[in-house]
Amino acid sequence: MRLRLPFSPRHLVLLPLSAVMLLPLAWMLLTSIQTLDESRHFPPQLIPSGIHWQNYPDAWNAAPFGRYFANSLIVTLASVVGNLVFCSLAGYAFARLHFFGRDVLFVVLLATLMVPFQVTMIPTFLIIKDLGLVNTLGALIAPNLVTPFGIFLLRQFFKTIPIELEEAARMDGCSRLGVLLRIVVPLSTPALATLAIVTFLWTWNDFLWPLIVITSPSASTVQLGLASFQGAHQTNWTLLMAGNVMALAPMLIVFIVAQRYFVQSLASTGLKG
Amino acid sequence: MIGRAARSEHVSGWLFVLPAVALIGLFGIVPIIWGAILSLQENDLLTPPTWVGLDNYRTLIHDPVFRASIHRTIVYTLLFVPLSVGGALAIAVLLNARIRFSRFYRTAVFIPVATSTVATGIIFNWLLEPTYGVVNYLLSFVGLGPYGFFQDPDQAMYSIVAMTVWGWLGFDVIVYMAALQGVPDELVEAAKLDGAGRWAIFRNVVFPLLSPTTLFLIVWSTINALQVFDEIYVTTRGGPLQATTVLVYYLFNQAFELFHGGYAAAIAYVLFLITLVFSILQLWVGNRRVYYS
User: Fold this and answer.
1) Predicted ipTM?
2) Where are the alpha helices (DSSP H) in chain A?
3) What is the mean predicted confidence (pLDDT) over A4-19?
4) Residue B41 is inside which H or E element, if any?
5) Measured between alpha carbons, how far apart are the two ends of chain B, in Å?
6) Residue B268 and which of A253, B80, B134, B189 are 20 to 30 A apart at CA?
7) Considering only residues 224 to 263 of chain B, which have any Cβ-Cβ distance to chain A shorter than 8 Å?
8) How many CA atoms lie within 13 A of B267 on its CB side?
9) Does residue B99 register a pLDDT over 70?
10) Are the C-beta atoms of A239 and A59 separated by less than 8 Å?
11) Across the interface, do B137 and A44 touch by the CB < 8 Å criterion?
C-alpha cells in the first residue's frame, strides 16, 4: 500500500528549495538590522535583539548613494529610450522596406551578436577615450543606445503584423514614419515592452563596462558604487548589508510588482533567441 | 512613377537604419576589426603602439597563467552548465502544476534574476565568510565543515559555481516554464491512456518536446559561463593563489591593471574562438538530437 500525503509531494522539494533561494536575501536583510557585535558572533543569532535601523543612514552617508542612483537612472532611461526609438526604426526598415544592401546589412548586424563583448571592450574603451567621454555618463550611454538583439526582436515581431493595415494607411497618404508611429508601434506593445524590460534589467545591473570607463565616484552607477563601497568597508558586514539592501531594493520591488511582465519578457527572449 | 517610389523606398530605408548602423558600426564593427589589429600590437592604451606581428599569440601559447585560466574556465563551464540547466528543468517540471503556494515558489526561484551580480557577490562573501558566515553554521548541523570557501584555493571555484548557479537558475526556469506551456495536453493525456507512467511520459513525450529549449539554454549558458567575470571580481579577485583566475578575469587583469592592451586583445580573440568552437559543436551535436515539431 502506498503512503498518501495530504498535500502534493512537490512541496517536499519546492519548500526547501525556496528556503535555499531566499536565504541569501533574507540573511542580508537580517544582518542589515543587527549591531556590528551581533554580526560578529558565532553561532550566528537568528533572532536579532532589536531592530538596529542606524545602519541605513550610516551606509547612506558613507558613500554618495544618491549620486549613484541618479546616474544609474539617467543611463538606464537613456538606453531604454534609445533602444526603443532606434531599434523600432531599423527593425521596421528591415521588416518592410526594400532598400539597397538590406539583406547583407542585416546579416552583418546579426553577426556582431556572436562576438563576445570582451573582444570589442578594449577598442571601444580607446574610442570612448578618443571621444573624451571617459568618466562621463556618455561613456555608459553611447555604446548602449541600440543593440542588434533589439533590432532582430522588433523585426521579427513587425513581420507578424498584417501588411494590409499599413498598405491602407499608405493609400490614404500616410508617410512611412507615420505608418510606423500610428499603426505598427501601437500594435507592437508586447515586443516593445520586452525590449524595454530586458534593456532596463541589463543596463541597471551592468558592471564590467562601467568598471572600465568610470573611475570617479561622481559618474559611478549603483553597481560600481556598491563594489567600491565593499572595498572601503571590508568586514563591516552590517554596514555592507544595509548598503546592499538600499542598492537592491528598487530593482527587487519593481521586479516583484511587475513579475508577470518580467517573466513574459525573459521567456520570449529565450524562446525566440 | 514606379521608379521614383522605389527610389524613395531606398532613401527612407537607409534613413531608418542610419542611426542604428552608425552606432553599431562605431561601437560594434570598428572595435571587432580594431581588436584584431590590437592583438598584433604592443599597446599600453596610452602611448602610440608598436607592431609585433603574432608575438602576442606566441607568448600566449607558453604563458602558464593563460593556459591554467583556460583550464579553469572550462572546468567552471562544465560544472555550471549542467547544474543550472538540469536543475532548472527539474524545478520547472515541479512548478508546472496547480498547487498551493506556487506563486510564492516562483517568486523565490525568480528573484535572483533581478539581483545584480555585484550584490550577489557581496551577499555571498558574507554568507560564506569562514568564521561568522551562516553557511558554515548551517553545515555544522549535518556534521560538515567549517570550510574556507572563497578563501580556500581548493574550494573557491566550487563556491563560485554555487553562487552563480543561484544567480542564473531563475532565468533558465522561466524559459523552461514557458516551453512547458507549449506542450499539448492531448499528447500527455494520450500517453496516460496508453498506460505510460509519469517518468515514461516525461522521458518520451515532454523531454523531446522541450529539446529545442534545452539546446538553446545549453548554448546560451555556455557562452555566459565562458565569460564569467563580475561575481569573481567582487568575491575572490581571481584568487586565492589564482584559483579562480578564469579567462576573462585574466584578460581584464592584463588590459586594465597591467595595461598590456595588445596581449589582452589576443586573449579576447582566443575567447572568441573558444566560444565559437563550443557553440558550433553544441549546435552540430544538438541539432541531430533535437525534436522540432
Assistant:
1) 0.92
2) 10-32, 36-39, 55-62, 65-96, 102-111, 117-130, 137-141, 148-158, 163-171, 176-179, 185-187, 189-205, 208-213, 222-232, 237-257, 259-272
3) 88
4) strand B41-42
5) 46
6) B80
7) 226-227, 229-230, 233-234, 248, 251-252, 255-256, 261
8) 29
9) yes
10) yes
11) yes
Give the per-residue pLDDT at A271.
Answer: 60
Cell of A120: 570589442
Q: Grade residue B97 by pLDDT with cuts at 50, 70 and 90.
A: confident
The 10s digit of each residue's pLDDT in B111-137 is 999 999 999 999 999 999 998 999 999
Stretch A14-35: mean pLDDT, rounded?
Answer: 94
pLDDT for A273 beyond 50: no
CA distances, A121 to each of A200, A210, B252 (Å):
21, 11, 10
Cβ-based contacts of A120 with chain B (< 8 Å): 27-28, 31-32, 35
Q: Cβ(B170)–Cβ(A263) under 8 Å?
A: no
The model's pTM: 0.93
In chain A the first and final C-alpha atoms are separated, in Å, by 48
Compute the distance between CA of residue A227 and CA of residue A253 in angstroms, rounded to an integer.
21
pLDDT score at A1: 53
- Residue B195 reports pLDDT greater than 90: no
Report how far residue A24's alpha carbon sits from residue B167's, in angstroms, rounded to the nearest whole number.
11
The predicted pLDDT at position B3 comes to 67
Q: Which of B186, B58, B110 is nearest to A252 (CA)?
A: B110
Largest CA distance in chain B: 85
Q: Which residues are within 8 A (CB) of B270 and not within 5 positions of it... i.e. 6 or more apart?
A: B60, B70, B247
In chain B, residues 195-224 whose CB comes closer than 8 Å to chain A: 213, 216-217, 220, 223
* Residue A28 CB contacts under 8 Å (≥ 6 apart), including other chains: A241, A244, A245, A248, B123, B126
Phi, psi of B52 (to 5 degrees): -125, 5
DSSP letter (8 states) at residue B12: H
**In the block, residue with C-alpha cell 593556459:** B67
What element of type H or E holds B42? Answer: strand B41-42
Task: Give the confidence band of B2 by pLDDT, cuts at 50, 70, 90.
Answer: low
Task: Tell me how far apart the alpha carbons of residues A124 and B32 are, in angstroms, rounded to a whole number.
Answer: 9
